[in-house]
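User: Need the bound-state model for 2-acetamido-2-deoxy-beta-D-glucopyranose:
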Amino acid sequence: MLSLLAPRACVLVGCIFVSSAEVFGLSDQYPPLWDESPGQFSDYSVENGKYIIDPWVYPKRMGMYKILLNKTASYFEKFAPDNERNILWGLALQHGWQFSSGRLVDPTQTTDCGYESGDRLCISVDSWWADLNYFLCALPFLAAVDAGIMGITSDQVQLVPPPKDQTKFCLSASSCQLSYPSTMRKWDALYKHLQSPSRSFEDLLKYMWEAHVSALDDGYKVFEDRFEYYSKPEADFGKDWSVFVDYIAAANFPTTFSTISAFQKALPPRVLVDGDRAPFISDFTDVQNIVLLGLNLVGESHSGSRTRTVINEGWADHARSYCLNF
Ligand SMILES: *[C@@H]1O[C@H](CO)[C@@H](O)[C@H](O)[C@H]1NC(C)=O
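Assistant: Bound-state model below.
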């Protein structure tokens, strides 16, 4: 399987790089409602001396990334001006794509959460994408607070629980550490390394991807039941995507502002419905069709499930050296 898979994944990663860089150019694209999102803690409400953040409202969740990017900016100055090579951009931009592509809405359609005609900014707890993103937002955010780089202490911030399944979401640094100790340690390791004068861009990426993949492992197990709310093509895409993340993690893909904003133009711009079959989706660009087809093939090689993907070291070496150029 691996021998078959390696060239496929290789072609796919290459395809995404080339297409994103050449077809689209490295244009600047901030996430939707970026300017309207909180950029400092004082933009959130305060209760009993704690900032109250509701991560189930899109601009409020995006604000967590905005503050995280702001507070870590100084550590990335030595790699590029204007925070361009802050590797945490990937998380914020991906969340923006989830919003603009309609992936944060209530997939059961029993509420108007997230819908244009309803509660547009609502993030649905039933959205698989929103739930996985929670692990890639709340955990890195709270770990950063706990690591002391956010300018407040852990007892000064409280996240609001979703309307249901509350026990699946940790709300504070201490409860996340209790529920997901290994992942929280890995985010902490990233922030520790960030503060080290000898930090290198590649090492930071490595720490970030370790924490990222670990958070995905945690979240994936908890929310597999959400797939049943989606069409088969969309559920497959979610599964294939999470397998693919293991590949870009192994490749140490640089999650900077320009690479990710270019890269995600190659991703499906809307939720997939029954009958969508890459590369024949008429309202997708050629690149979006090809990338989706590529993701399907990568996922297929793993029987469409994200048991921890074992990645051929030779492939990873090759991909890492390829990625160095971006
Ligand atoms: C961080 O946010 C503060 C307050 O909004 C702002 O004054 C500052 O310029 C920001 N820093 C960076 C690097 O974006």
